[in-house]
Amino acid sequence: MKKITLVLSLFVVGIVSSIQAQNLSNNKFGKGIQVMAKDSSFYMKASIRFQTLYNGELNLVTDEWNDNVMIRRSRLKFNGFVYNPKVEYKIELAISNRDNGKVAAESNSAASIVLDAVLKYKFAPNWQLWFGQTKLPGNRERVISSQALQFVDRSQLNSKYTIDRGTGVQLRGKQKIGNFVVKEAGSVSMGEGRNFTKSNIGGYEFTGRIELLPFGEFSSKGDYFGSDLKREKSPKLAIGVTYDQNNSTTRENGFKGDFLSEARNQNTVFVDAMFKYKGFSTMFEYADKRTDESAVLLDGTSYQTGTGTNIQLGYLFKNNFEVAARYTDIKPENNNWSDDYSEMTLGFSRYIVGHSLKVQSDLTFVDHDIDNDIFRFRLQAELAF
Questions:
Q1: pLDDT tens figures, 67-92
Q2: pLDDT tens figures, 10-43
Q3: Is 356 exposed, middle or buried (0-12, 13-18, 19+ CB in 10 A)?
Q4: CATH H-level, domain 27-384: superfamily
Q5: Domain boundaries of the chain, sorted by first residue
Q6: How close are the terminal C-alpha atoms of the chain, in Å?
């Protein structure tokens, strides 16, 4: 009996010692898994997230209901610095089928898994040079992470007119004049979107953006996530303007879409604003995308050009439940690729751990000028750690 007791005692001591020997860290849910080299020459934060989405649509003319459940997005993300804190990096991979994009010969007939792969060098105070593939300094809603949206997904303005990601070089700066903040960004990219493996078949894409924050910076970079989760104690406002010129592109939307038979220069202007104060938030965006010649080609195909307006507002209650509303208006330059339509959306969100663990739903009425009107219901759960 004494031998059995001794063996059990040693076994328990072994388990306790093993537990105590584990590499416990200060990592926190929603903040990723963080690793720092002993000599501080390397830092990495690794995170993973996914969105499970139910989408149902009712055709208000035919009374036909269509629905499905999907993994809308699933991502692996790594960011940090190497060698010196001035040399930062970001890698983001899309690993769900819905998230990979269209397989095309121009991307070696492979899934477009790589979203971001970019180096960032802080060569002077408040100045960075970026090199690689990442989001261009375009419309605010696009630059906001899909994890940090106020609604289930981005608006149709973003879907139709955004300039998205590109591969090239970017210059980023930030200046302060008292409490007034000015942010500048400029980029030169290939103009063919992400994961494009052929040589430049058109011209380069040039993008410039300026942002004004007259009341100072938002808490925790709140000008680039949806909802006023930080409950700004004083009014905060950010106003941004972007101009983009994509030279000799042959894709419908510049960075994506089918390849067309004739090249065009595409010019896009974005104007946007974000305001937050004590749980109230609102965001406005306007987009205007044009070609230098007719957007309709001789074979009947067309570039996706036109204008769009999006405005949304919401209020976050103290229990982290939010009610939000959004109105989007899309006016194509021609009807070859779409008719005029508007969307009115009512959204409901419950933020359990900020944008890292939340449940969102929305109801949308789509009012088409030509096509059938649609009623849409969506429900989405997001987990990010």
A1: 999 999 999 999 999 999 999 999 99
A2: 444 444 444 344 445 567 888 888 998 888 888 9
A3: buried
A4: Porin (2.40.160.10)
A5: 27-384
A6: 48
